């Protein structure tokens, strides 16, 4: 199933070239109470919502995908987790380019980093440059969405905690500040166009991915080229902090990272997950 938030915060399912408005299925969610548990309630109760959606399919409004505005398919993550230097070709290009701030060691030595959840947007929102005088770079990544509470999970069991996958753009300002600070600017975490549930992806560790800017291909690789695989990322992250439903892991980027400026249009594609078109504008 391909689940999305679209237009005016409507819940949708993408079927072919149409978006089915299944907002009514949200009635399957338990009533909110205070204080709320951390995590995204839709992702936490995905099974119940999917069952409700199946009962609605034939009687809901339908809209063309081409005319729909896609928001982030995860509305309320407690955290966005980044995985640094996770493709060998990107490690090499970073060493050769002085614009990249250098950190010591590989992914195991550097550790994971966090991005502010307030930086999360959908592909239709676009990326807004708050500091156009500084370099902002694109980084295409596979986004992994956690489906249930996970703490100290084994690498063997890690993928069973995943709800689904989406295309992610980990945007970053280059400079000397802490990595998390430079990557947490509003709109610098793009996720979309929808959440593809795990049952539709046979092997997340074998997906082709690419990103172009204004029609020119800049990044192209496969998730099989990751240094640290997805299962290890989940297990390792859960040994430090509890992962909650809706948490997003941006699994690392490949060679070809480069600058974007206002007026640029990025198009990112990951096999099995679709494509996103993201405009870059001034703030």
Key traits:
283 residues, alpha+beta, eleven-stranded mixed β-sheet, five-stranded mixed β-sheet, 6 helices
Low-confidence stretches: none
Which H/E pattern describes the elements?
Answer: EEEHHEEHHEEEEEEEHEEEHEEEE
Gyration radius (Cα, Å) is 18 Å
> Tally the helices: what do you get?
6
Number of strands: 19
Rough shape?
Answer: globular
**Helix proportion:** 10-25%
Give the terminus-to-terminus CA distance: 34 Å
Strand proportion, as a percent range, falls in: 25-35%
- Name the average pLDDT: 96
Largest sheet: 11 strands, mixed
Structural class computed from helices and strand pairing:
alpha+beta
Overview of the molecule:
- It contains six helices and 19 strands.
- A hairpin with a 2-residue loop joins strand 14 and strand 15 (216-222).
- The chain has helices at 41-44, 46-56, 88-96, 107-110, 179-182, 230-240; strands spanning 2-6, 10-15, 18-21, 62-64, 80-82, 113-115, 120-121, 127-129, 136-138, 140-146, 162-170, 172-173, 189-197, 208-213, 216-222, 248-250, 258-260, 265-270, 274-282.
- The mean pLDDT is 96.
- The protein has 283 residues and is of the alpha+beta class.
């Amino acid at each position: 199933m391909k689940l999305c938030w679209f237009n005016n915060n409507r819940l949708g399912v993408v079927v072919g070239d149409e978006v089915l408005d299944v907002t009514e299925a949200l009635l399957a969610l338990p009533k909110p109470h205070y204080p709320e548990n951390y995590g995204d309630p839709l992702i936490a109760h995905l099974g119940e919502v999917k069952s409700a959606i199946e009962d609605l399919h034939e009687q809901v409004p339908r809209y063309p995908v081409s005319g729909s505005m896609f928001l982030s398919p995860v509305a309320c993550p407690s955290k966005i987790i980044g995985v640094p230097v996770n493709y060998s070709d990107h490690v090499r290009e970073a060493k050769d380019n002085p614009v990249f701030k250098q950190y010591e060691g590989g992914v195991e030595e550097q550790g994971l980093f966090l991005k502010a959840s307030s930086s999360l947007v959908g592909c239709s929102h676009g990326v807004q440059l708050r500091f156009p005088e500084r370099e902002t770079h694109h980084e295409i990544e596979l986004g992994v969405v956690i489906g249930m509470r996970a703490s100290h999970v084994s690498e063997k069991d890690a993928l069973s905690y995943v709800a689904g996958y989406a295309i992610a753009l980990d945007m970053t300002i280059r400079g000397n500040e802490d990595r998390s600070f430079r990557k947490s600017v509003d709109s610098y975490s793009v996720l979309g166009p929808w959440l593809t549930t795990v049952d539709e992806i046979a092997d997340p560790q074998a997906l082709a991915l690419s990103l172009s800017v204004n029609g020119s291909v800049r990044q192209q690789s496969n998730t099989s080229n990751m240094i640290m695989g997805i299962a290890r990322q989940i297990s390792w992250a859960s040994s430090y902090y509890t992962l909650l439903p809706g948490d997003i892991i941006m699994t690392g980027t490949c060679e070809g990272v480069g600058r974007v400026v206002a007026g640029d249009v990025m198009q990112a594609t990951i096999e099995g997950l679709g494509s996103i078109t993201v405009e870059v504008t001034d703030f």
